[in-house]
Amino acid sequence: MLKAIIEDLDGDKWEEICDKCYRMRYQDQGFTKVPPKYLGDSGIEGFTSTGIVYQCYYPEKEYSDDDLYDKQRDKLTKDIGKLMKNEEGLKKLGVGIIKEWHFVIPEYRDRRIVEHCETKRKEVLEKNLDYIDKNFRILIKIEEDFLEEINKVVLYEDGIKLNISYKHTGDIDLTQHESEKVNNIQRKIQAIIGQDVGDDIQAMRLERLIKIYVSYYSQGIIILNQLRATSPELYEKIKSIEQVYKLEAQTKCDMNWDHTINKQLFEEILKEFGERLNESFSRVLTLESIQELKNDLISGWLADCPMDFYR
């Protein structure tokens, strides 16, 4: 869901994203954006010369399935009503024969909204309006229908940033995670610290560090999979930069035979990799997200083989 990763996503930003997606997809079909205050927008956000019009809706808050259906149904009903009553306004805009009316929403969870679309479609056709095509359709469009365009909006348009940060508490059960990964993280962190656990307080601090990095590792897998699905170009760019710097970090570790500087070396790698990520992604990711990404990827290097520290 875009809501989970786009910073401060709301109705205005959703409309902005939708407008840009339609402009990209239908630019060669005479796409025109309708000013939002023009005659109450006549039930459309924009139109093409090929008979497509669309209307956006974004929920004001997190609704239950039933409440979300009610809100979407009421919005669709209201705007189809505008469509049937504003022939003159539509023609003044230059809208031709309307073949498709798109209801653009992030998601829907109830089949009743699909059934309602069919009910309203029949209602429109029963009016025998001369600006409505005899094969007129009402279609629901969700974010997955525009992944390619959304990916370009995020990567190349200003003003929209992804927020992939996660609030790590370290309150996790290590036994629920793959033991080999946990053991690798524990061994490497102990090598970075450079001394044995001396008392209960030190043991507690070590366990807390291990849990935090295991949390970064497990959550990082989820975040990267989410990015791969919603923004594949960004995902590939992240993986490309990671691969390059991962080899640099591995080389630095392999060339270090002085275990007394493990902590210094680790901090240098963190700092340099963070700067590299900030240079590459500050326009598309929030600062919190870049910090999250750095720690997620570094934790993967600790859990696997690329970056190692010896004592």
**Major sheet: order of its strands?**
1-2-3-4-5
Nearest-integer average pLDDT: 89
Radius of gyration of CA atoms, rounded to a whole number:
26 Å
Largest sheet: 5 strands, mixed
Percentage of residues assigned to helices: 55-70%
Summing up helix and strand content along with how strands pair, one would put the structural category as alpha/beta
Tally of DSSP β-strands: 5
What gap, in angstroms, lies between the N and C termini? 44 Å
Strand percentage, roughly?
5-15%
Number of helices: 11
Poorly predicted regions are: none
Shape: elongated
H/E series: HHEEEHHEHEHHHHHH
Layout of SSEs?
Layout: H1 2-5, H2 11-26, E1 32-33, E2 46-47, E3 52-56, H3 65-85, H4 87-93, E4 98-104, H5 112-126, E5 132-141, H6 147-156, H7 179-193, H8 200-230, H9 232-254, H10 262-281, H11 287-303
Parallel strand pairs: 3-4, 4-5
Antiparallel strand pairs: 1-2, 2-3
Helix pairs in contact: 3-5, 7-8, 8-9, 8-11, 9-10, 10-11
Put the structure in a nutshell.
The protein has 311 residues and is of the alpha/beta class.
Give an overview in words:
The chain is α/β, with parallel strands linked by helices. It contains 11 helices and 5 strands, in the order ααβββααβαβαααααα. A 5-stranded mixed sheet has the order 1-2-3-4-5.
Kindly list the characteristics that best describe this protein.
311 residues, 8% strand, alpha/beta, five-stranded mixed sheet
